[in-house]
Amino acid sequence: MTTISNFIPPIIVAQVAFWFMVVLTLVGAVIAVTLPKIVHNILGLALSMFGVAGIYLYLGSQFVAVMQLLIYVGAICVTYIFAIMLSPPLEWDVPKKRKTRMIAALIVSVGAFIVMVQMITSFNWGPGTNLTRDWTIKTLGQQLLTRYFLVFELISLLLAIAIIGAIMIASYHQKRD
Amino acid sequence: MEQLITYLILGALMFCIGIFGILQHITLIGMLISTELILNGAALNFMAFNMFLSKDAAVGQVFTLFIMGLAAAETAIALSIIITIYRRFREIKPDSVTELKG
């Protein structure tokens, strides 16, 4: 059977795939914030989340990568698209972006990025740990239900409250009519 | 690819793109999309620290899962608020919804 690793060494394939994911993430993020139409922004967000899921695979956690795909691409982006498709079309024309606002935003974000990179590169992070790593889903599930049980319960409670609150808020105005 | 700094800079870049989006978008939904980018930058940092520095292999992953749950809850609440605002004001530009301003 001929695979791609017969011609190119696997380490180079891995490198190329990693940088492809990085480029996918950044391109998706830029699409998500710059294009004027909201549906395009949402599709850019989905692209970016897909790239981040790929990077999570490189960070060794299959479970979190699959959860990223399921929750962000599968649930959050679809929720946005539903909210847009179900609401009536807006009458206002797409307004022109104010130049000053854009320039100010650019200055603030580039400044923040420069400060962050300075902090990241100046700090000595020290050697990584050499412990044996157990990344399997089984371990994660056991930890989640024993040591981190409070976190698990908090997420459940938070999601329940959020669902009830969202329904209450969205149906509040209809009742008064 | 096997350096901590690569992931940290990628996370910082996503965070700053998100800040740029929040500041320059004119609609509420656009701002919400940028918030997701900011949350993802933070989650990427947690996963990178978990891989390279942490002694406990699960804590970063658990925190990332917690961030995902928070993002889902935030999306549901914020979208319902935006829909209510749209019904009330016929408008989703944050500059023109100023009735609650003190």
Low-pLDDT regions of chain A? none
Largest β sheet strand count, sense and barrel closure of chain B: none
* Continuous helix count of chain B: 3
CA-based shape of chain B: elongated
Strand content of chain B: under 5%
Backbone CA Rg of chain B: 17 Å
CATH domain class name of the largest domain in chain A: Mainly Alpha
Mean pLDDT of chain A: 84
Q: What is the CA-based Rg of chain A, rounded? A: 22 Å
**Helical amount among residues of chain B, as a percent range?**
over 70%
How many helix segments of chain A?
6
Low-confidence stretches of chain B: none
Biggest sheet record of chain A: none
Characterise this structure.
The complex is a heterodimer of chains A (177) and B (102). Chain A has six helices and no strands. By secondary structure, chain A is mainly alpha-helical. The radius of gyration of chain A is 22 Å and the shape is extended. The model of chain A has no long low-confidence stretch (mean pLDDT 84). Chain B has 102 residues and is mainly alpha-helical. Chain B has one domain (4-89): Helix Hairpins (Orthogonal Bundle), CATH 1.10.287.3510. At the A-B interface, helix 1, helix 2, helix 3, helix 4 and helix 5 of A face helix 1, helix 2 and helix 3 of B.
